Amino acid sequence: MAIHAEGLVAIVIFYLLILFVGIWAAWKNKDSGVGSDRSETIMVGGRDIGLFVGGFTMTATWVGGGYINGTAEYVYLPAFGLAWAQAPFGYALSLVVGGLFFAKPMRSRGYVTMLDPFQQLYGKRMGGLLFIPALMGEIFWSAAILSALGATLSVIVDIDINMSVIISAMIAIFYTLVGGLYSVAYTDVVQLFCIFLGLWISVPFALSNPAVADIGVSAKQAIYQSAWLGKIDPNDIWLWVDNFFLLVLGGIPWQVYFQRVLSASSATYAQVLSFLAAFGCLVMAVPSVLIGAIGASTDWNQTSYGAVTPKEKDESDMILPIVLQHLCPPYISFFGLGAVSAAVMSSADSSILSASSMFARNIYQLAFRQSASDREIVWVMRITIFVFGSLATAMALLTGTVYGLWYLSSDLVYVIIFPQLLCVLFIKGTNTYGSVAGYVFGLLLRIGGGEPYLKLPPFIYYPWWVTQEKIHHLTGDVEHFVQQKFPFKSMSMLASFLANVAFSYLTKYLFESGTVSHKYDFLDAVHSKEMMEKTTLVGNQDNIILSEMAPVTQALGGALAGTFSNADVLSDDGESSAESLHNEE
After folding, report:
1. CB atoms inside a 10 Å sphere around CB 396
2. What's the N-to-C CA distance of the chain in angstroms?
């Protein structure tokens, strides 16, 4: 296949558009945070991201390349269908739950990253432990996005995949280095417009292709394959429920989400943005669902793709670019694929920024160099943006199991970090001993269930486990693996939560009653007041105790985000200190 010049031109145009917007946003906001809080400006955009930009960037928390490709894939797959395409409803509900219960306490207490409350309550060592699954999730997510991008580009133009992935990563890393969250937020606006326009322009042409049957008919009855609405087998009900809760609750404790929450103008704005983004998630999934349905309703023998279906070629994960390439006119195809490719590239930036923010603040500054200057933190962020971006790129190119690694790490975020977040925000009296116990319980129970994508065999066989086989159509190889149909991920999360609470209260009782001598409190968890209370968790002022914090006010000034925010911004001044939040409880 020769290089498609039109496709290459489309990709270059969209890439340049993303790059231009990223650099423009950085330049327009270059004076924001000049002085003592430049690092915080890079991390949370000066806390002046308004409703327009905020709504788009919050939606882009989950709506990216993986979201649109994955939704189309599951609708297309004969064994799954729309019934198993859980991401749109799961992540939308996740944003609603996050907005209702988590956005306000996190934003009104003035935290800068998701790990701040953990370090405040459990100390810097536990914060470091919790950084590991959080970092893994962000890095593997970025790698999975870049890996999908390579596959998408291979459909459009026959150019070197490795080179295209490297160039894409370099562009995303460059404008993130230059502009931080401002660049990420403004490129998110372009990213969502690109996806929306690119897909919606393509859908009518694909639907009207002679090779495509009526998707209304193929929704309920088999034409070229089983009905695309799909069904849930009674034996798989608990597996479906487990995966759904993984999306709803496991979608909350991510720095990419709280990065947007903490950049909002106020706590109320953070909640409103979460609800807007939930609606955005559903709207942005519609064209992907339609494209998956079109793929399931197509007689591929009548197309340029050939008689062998994408599923039989093991290319189900590329059904969206395949439909755009083979069922639409070339000029529409290239526009759609170029827009989607640029959007995929753009969605890797926020994960890289999230990982570097947590490292620079929670590991480097709060754990090792509390006296570090703001300029020093900025340079640490820049270096780690480059390092983590390069790491994600290398993983996308060198490992074939990047999706398996991301699945496992997202499970660990759900099983380990979510119950810890519940405890630190809503359960009084938990301590570091409980946190360690919850961490260990959750990790063992989840790893014990195995991970088929990584060929990791289980050492805990939960009820209802079965042996399944997977046939690789191209090679003819048959792979056997254990599938756990028990909702063991949610069970592991609950066990982690209960272990945290139980061990916290047990150790508190043992030490305070004198049953165990205070000298054995080697984590200083029960009697020490050191637990990061006086670290600079807000702003750059010295010795701020969180319970004495002043209300967080919007950082006004030259930031262009103010253009899109209401002059009479929704304010939570009366409720923005941690002290008043505790009084409410």
Report:
1. 26
2. 65
Distance (Å, rounded) from C-alpha 513 to C-alpha 504?
14
Q: How far, in Å, CA of 419 to CA of 435, rounded?
A: 9
Low-confidence residues in the chain, pLDDT < 50: 1-2, 35-36, 529-536, 538-585
- Token pair 């489309």: residue: 10
Q: Tell me the residue type at 538.
A: V
Radius of gyration for the alpha carbons in the chain, expressed in angstroms and rounded: 24
Q: What are phi and psi of 325, to 5 degrees?
A: -75, -40
At 471, phi and psi to the nearest 5? -100, 125
Count of CB atoms within 10 A of residue 47's CB?
Answer: 26
- The β-bridge partners of 481 are 468
Q: How far apart are CA 437 and CA 358, in angstroms?
A: 23
Q: What is the pLDDT of residue 431?
A: 92
Nearest by Cα to 387 from 138, 134, 15, 60: 138
CA separation for the pair 9, 199 (Å, rounded): 18
Q: What is the DSSP letter of 305?
A: T
CB 304 within 8 A of CB 216: no
pLDDT tens digit sequence for 307-324: 888 888 878 888 888 898
- How many C-beta atoms lie closer than 10 Å to residue 352's C-beta? 30
* CA–CA gap between residue 499 and residue 106 (Å, rounded): 24
Backbone angles phi, psi at 254, to 5 degrees: -120, 140
Q: Is the dihedral of CA 171, 184, 255, 528 positive or negative?
A: positive
Task: List, in sequence order, the alpha helices (H) in 63-160.
Answer: 65-76, 87-97, 103-108, 116-122, 124-156
Q: How many beta carbons lie within 10 A of that of residue 465, not counting itself?
A: 17
Q: Is the dihedral of CA 121, 126, 132, 133 positive or negative?
A: negative
Contact, 445 vs 414, CB < 8 A? no
Q: Which residue carries 């729309």 as its tokens?
A: 82
> Cα separation of 63 and 85, whole Å?
14
Q: Give 471-529 pLDDT, tens digit per residue.
A: 766 666 777 888 888 999 999 999 999 999 999 999 999 988 888 888 888 877 775 54
Contacts of residue 223, defined as CB under 8 A and 6 or more positions apart, other chains included, come to 213, 217, 297
Query: Are 337 and 331 spatial neighbours (Cβ–Cβ below 8 Å)?
Result: no
Q: What are the C-alpha distances in Å from 374 to residues 77, 218, 265, 323, 357?
A: 50, 59, 22, 49, 13
Tokens encoding 325: 């390439």
Token duo for residue 130: 């919790």
CA 101 to chain centre: 19
Cα separation of 118 and 186, whole Å? Answer: 30
d(CA 398, CA 405): 13
Q: Which residue in the block uniquely carries the two structure tokens 């890996």?
A: 147
Question: At 355, is the secondary structure helix, strand, or coil?
Answer: helix
Cα–Cα distance for residue pair 66/145, rounded to 1 Å: 6
Q: Taking every pair of C-alpha atoms in the chain, what is the biggest distance, in angstroms?
A: 80
